[in-house]
Amino acid sequence: MAVNGEVVIQAVGIGKRFRAVTGDDLIALEGVSFAVRPNEFVSIIGPSGCGKTTLLRILDGLVPPDEGEVRIRGQRITGPGPDRAMVFQDFALLPWATVEDNVAFPLEIRGVPLQERQRRAREAIQLVGLAGFEAYYPHSLSGGMQQRVGLARALVVDPEMLLMDEPFGALDAQTRHLLQDELLTLWQAHRKTVVLVTHDMEEAVYLSDRVLLMGPRPGRIAREVEVPLPRPRDHTVRRTAQFAELVECVWDTLRAFARP
Amino acid sequence: MKRSRDLFHWVLHRAPWTISVAPVLALWEVVGRLRLFAFVTPLTDVARAGLLLAGRGSLRADLALTVSAVLVGFGLAVAAGVAVGVLMGRYRLAEAVFGLYVDIFQSTPAAAKVPVLVLLFGLGRGSIVATVFLFAFFVITVNVYTGVRQVSPTLVEMARSFGAGEWTLIRRVILPAALPLVMAGLRMGVGRAVNGAVLGEMLISIVGIGGLLMYYGSSFRVDFLYALILLVVALAAVLMGAVHAIERRLIRWMR
User: Fold this and answer.
1) B178: helix, coil or strand?
2) Across the interface, do A94 and B163 touch by the CB < 8 Å criterion?
3) Which of B152, B158, B166, B170 to substitute to test the interface with A, most A CBs within 10 Å?
C-alpha cells in the first residue's frame, strides 16, 4: 500500500509519553504506524483512554510525538499546516463571534481580505445548511448547529485533509445520525482525505473506507478492518447484513480489549 | 393607592439605589439637626457648602488636577496591568518572575508605599500619578491574570490548529475570552485610582481635591469637608459607571 505517491498521511512509529502525577511516565502511544491514501476516509476507534485524540493532535501538528514522525506527502511535519483542518469534539467556537465570523476565523488568521473572507464564509455556511444563521451567536444555536459551524470553519480553508475528533460525540443520537448522513453526502460530493476519531462503531463503519482499531494503553493500532460497502452510500446501507457483520467484526475486537 | 404602588415599582426597578440612599440621607439630616454629634452637620448645610465651593472658580481647577492625575495614572496602570497580567497568565516564566511581587505588593497597605514614591519622584505631580498607578495596577494585573488563566484550552488549540501565531492568539482569542475579568479589574482599578489620587494629594503635595480635604479637615469646616467627600464619591461613581458602560458595549454577545 505504501507505494510513494499513493499515500498522503503517513504515521511512522509514533510514541507519546505523559508524566503521570506519581512521577512515572505514562505511555499513551507506542509504535503507531499507518498510512492514509488520498481521498480515503479512515476512522480510528478504540476504548476511551487509548490515546486516539492524542494521535489526532499529533497528526495535526499541535503536539510533537516523542518518537517517530508524521509525514504528509513524504514531508515530516513540525506543526499545524494549511493543508489540514480540524473539527473539534466540543465545537471550540468563539462565543463572542457570530456564525459568519467564526467560520471566517481561519481566513482572518491567514490574512485573507475581508470581502473574500465574507464570500467564502457564506459559501461554507451554505454548504453545511446554515444559510440564514450567519448573524447568530453560538449560544443561541443547538449542539448540532454548532458543530455544523465547526465543520464549515474547517471546510472554509478548503483543506486537503480533514481531521475530526469525535465530532458528533457530544450530540444526541438523532442529531448524530443526521450529521453523519450530511457528512457522508458532503464527502461524496467534495472528496477529501478524512481521519475521524470516534468511539461509535456504527459511525466508523458507516462513513469509512477503513477502520483502524486501537488497543488500550499503551495505544497502538491493533487491527485494521476494510469496509467494502459500496459507494456512494446512504442511510439504507445501515440495514444491510454486510453492515451488521462489519460492525460485529469491529465489536468482537473491541470486546476482547475490554476483557480484564 | 394604585398610584403609590406604581411609584414603588418604578423606583425598585429603575432606581433601586434610592431605597438604600434615601433613608441614610434622611437620618443624616435628622442627626445633624438634633446636634447629637459635634462634627455631624445637617445634610442641608453640607449642600450649601457644596454650592459655595462650586461657585468658586478654584474648585474647577482643583478637580481638573485630581481628575487628570486619576486618568494618567489609571491609563498607565491599565496598559501595564494588562501587559503583565497576560504575560503571567500565559508564560510560566513571567508567572515566576512577577507572581511573588504582585502578591506582596497587593497585600501591603498602599499608603505605606507613598513615602518611597516621594523619595523616587519628588514632591510633585509625578509622585501623585505614581500613587494612582500603584493603587490601580495590582488589582488590574491580578484580574487579567486570572482571566487569561481561565481561557478555554480548546479555543487556544483551535486557533493554533488554524495557524494562529502568539500575537494573533492573544489579540483574537485570549483577550476577548478574558474580557469579563479584565473589565472587572478595570472597574475596581478606577475606584482605587480615585483613592490613590486623593490620598497622594493629601500626603505628598497639598493640591487638588485631596489638598482641599486636608485644608477643610484641619480647619474643622466639616460642612465643606463632607461636601468634598461626596464629590470624591461622585467622581468615583461616574468613572466606574463609564467603565461599566464600555463593558456592556463590549460584552454585548453575552445577552
Assistant:
1) helix
2) no
3) B158
Where does chain A have alpha helices with state H? 52-60, 99-109, 114-127, 143-155, 173-189, 201-207, 241-258
B253 to each of A18, B193, B203, how far by Cα in Å? 38, 29, 44
- Of B133, B143, B30, B43, nearest to B85 by C-alpha is B143
- When pLDDT is cut at 50, 70 and 90, the band that residue A49 belongs to is confident
How far apart CA A161 and CA A9 sit, in angstroms, is 9
Measured CA to CA, the distance from residue A78 to residue A58 in angstroms comes to 10
Q: Which value does ipTM take for this structure?
A: 0.91
Sign, Cα dihedral of B139, B144, B147, B153: negative
CB–CB contact B160 A62 (8 Å): yes
Q: Evaluate if residue A219 carries a pLDDT over 90.
A: no
The residue of chain A nearest to residue B157, with distances taken between CA atoms, is: A62
Report strand pairing: A84-87 vs A193-198: unpaired
- Calpha distance A148→A167 (Å, rounded): 10
Question: In which element (H, E) is residue B21 found?
Answer: helix B17-33
- Show the cell assigned to A192: 477529501
With CA atoms as reference, report the closest residue to B130 among B207, B208, B74.
Answer: B74
**Cβ pair A41, A212 in contact under 8 A:** no
Q: What is the pTM of this model?
A: 0.86
